[in-house]
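Memo to structure team: turn this sequence into structure tokens by end of day. - J.P.
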Amino acid sequence: MRLPIVRATLGEAFGRRIVLWGWVSSVLLVALFAVGFVFLYDQISDDESLAATAQRVVIGGVLTILGLYVGSFLSAFLSMMLAAGSVSADVDSGVLQAVVVRPLPRWRWYLERWAGLVTMSVVYVVVLTLAVLLVAHLVSGYQPVSIAALLALLALQVTFLVTVGMLLSCRLSSVATGVVLFLYFGIAWLGGFIGWIGTVAEKTELGTIGTVVSLLAPSDELWKAASSYALPQGLPVGLGTDGSLGLPFLSTLEPSPWFIGWALLLTAALLALGMRAFTRRDL
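Reply from structure team:
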């Protein structure tokens, strides 16, 4: 099946500096992570006692999840920047007037454009995540609970952000889309932090606010769901009353299938809404 817009989107992305700098920053991240991991892990590797072994498991897990957390942020940022001008930039340049009038229906152009951006974002987050896990495995023999589930949830996170970004780009300029999308991403993180505080402090109201925000902006909760599968094998699940090991950016609790289903449904609904908005936009 011929997918001209997907190929054009991929070709365009390789010529954009944002993609180049995304890969450069990912290489620097992996290198810095490797140096830090080796240095810190070697400090406790000589002690063979049971307590030291348990400490190595916990420290190795926390370090790896920190590396994955930063990698998730870079991946989210790249996907948001790619999506920010995905529609508005082509409309302003007049490219779409020659493309979607006759050769391609608008909905197909939008869908292929979305598929191209999602492909780039997913490839980036998968490669970066595997690189971090490879470093952790080579240094400490680190094995996460489920690599497949971890990658799938991180891929869903960037897919969701691309979908939201393209929808916004149908109505806003590239700069405005980037600003609103980044604020949306920040609200999701803030909602997750508020929910964590509510759980730790046993404040039902704060927990409710966090839950509502996670349903409306699920990107942060998707990361936390992914982090539960990034934990090292053999680490007790559900440590602490909130299953977070006392840290606001991860969870040891298995994610709810209802939430994952909601995130998929919301992504599909926003994609359909974006196609509808694009078909009604003046070019």
